[in-house]
Amino acid sequence: MRLLVVSQYFWPENFRVNELVSELVARGHDVTVLTGRPNYPEGRTFAEYKQDPGRFESYKNARIVRVPLRPRGNGSLQLALNYLSFLFWATLLGSWRLRGRQFDAVFSFQVSPVTSALPALWMSYLKRVPMLMWVLDLWPETLSAVGAVKSPRALIAIGRMVGYIYRHCDRVLVQSQAFVASVERWSGSSARVRYFPAWVEAVFDNGSSEIAPEVANFHDSFNVMFAGNIGEAQDFPSILAAATSMKHRKDIRWLIVGDSRAMGEVRTEIERRGLEGTMILLGRHALERMPSFFKAADAMLVSLKSDPVFDMTIPGKVQSYLATGVPILGMLGGEGARVIAESGAGLVCDAGDGTALAYNVEKLAAMPSGERAAMGERGRNYARLEFDRAVLISRLEEWLSELTRSGTDPRRPARSS
Questions:
Q1: Do residue 151 and residue 240 come from a single domain?
Q2: Residues 100 and 171 occupy one common structural domain
Q3: Strand order through the sheet with 279-283
Q4: Which terminal residue of the chain has fewer beta carbons within 10 Å of its beta carbon, N or C?
């Protein structure tokens, strides 16, 4: 099939859409990606891209069409302009650069913002082909949860836009079963919804990585590792509260692998709380290196703020954590907590409960190593059963084939069956 993938984020930024594209190409599909200039998560266009943009015009034999994009910067205004710039340029310039190109389907990778699906919808209309949208962040609920939009009227208006997008998709794929109710609320139907969770990334298939030199010296402590974006949703204040209550435990370290626009504030708070010796900021590193960092971990930490929308979410890192065979410490509710508890892969406490998190850290650290190893192995087995990459991408191929055979007309709302 000839596939157009529309995503505001793409390689060299680290998102699962990269691996999805790679897998589809490996299966013989002709894939083109419409995306922006890489700047996530620091908020600045990547230096290596500015030095040599030509290096980033293809990825694993997929063609990349990049449009101008205002970097995320720092602050809500800059972020809004970032979102709008992709919407504008991907719709206007993207359609021009893809003129004359024929596709069999359009695939929209939708983390925030949902507006990134609008250029995909436009391309679906222009090319007269079906569109699938993979929803990993719920809008407008996420905007409300992080306090980005507080006006009820604005949230309702955004919700109507979301409903319009859902109604004009031929399939809406959701990363969590709990997302179905939101799709039904805004679109009026859940008939076109399909469950499509994130998979374990290929980089975790091979467990033979050497330990990363950045963490090789931390062998004398029990290491709790957090990996990924450090944002509002991850509730770092509660993690800091847990670490502060335990800073007398010099045998326990918190290793933070990741970055965000708010990293300066986190660093300042670590210094203010006197956590320099126990909470180590290791910065952002390529996804390919993550297994070598995870080698130093005795526990993997995942957290989300207390909010109904986050309770519906399975953080993408959960699948990766399960595959490592390392016990998981969860400070979250809902679907993410359910997966950890159901798998038997770790210990979970309520979202926002730093005191309970500290208790679970100490409990896990005191546990015999054999019990921790058994936890990790249960997680690995659960990941194989529930989040197998080959099975999930084959399922996506079936949906794509079904739609391309059905002759869906994207000029009108997708069928409800």
A1: no
A2: yes
A3: 279-283, 252-257, 222-227, 299-303, 328-331, 346-349
A4: C
What domain range includes position 341? 204-386
pLDDT of the residue at 41: 82
Is 194 part of any domain?
yes
pLDDT of residue 208: 63
The answer to whether residue 416 is domain-embedded is no
Residue 116 and residue 220 in one domain: no
DSSP label of 249: -
User: 253: domain CATH number?
Assistant: 3.40.50.2000
Q: Is residue 346 part of a domain?
A: yes
Please tell me the predicted confidence (pLDDT) of residue 408.
54
Enumerate the H helices of 168-261 as residue ranges. 180-187, 236-245
CB 329 within 8 A of CB 376: no
335 close to 263: Cβ distance less than 8 angstroms: no
Q: Which residues of the chain have pLDDT under 70?
A: 206-208, 261, 407-417
| Two structure tokens written together for 150 | 């507080």
Q: Is 368 exposed, middle or buried (0-12, 13-18, 19+ CB in 10 A)?
A: exposed
> What is the pTM (predicted TM-score) of this model?
0.84
Contact call for residues 135 and 174 (beta carbons, < 8 A)? yes
Residue 87 inside a domain? The answer is yes
Dihedral of the CA atoms 358, 360, 361, 365 (nearest 10)? 140
- Beta-bridged to residue 302, according to DSSP, are 330
CA-CA-CA-CA dihedral for 393, 303, 356, 241, to nearest 10: 160
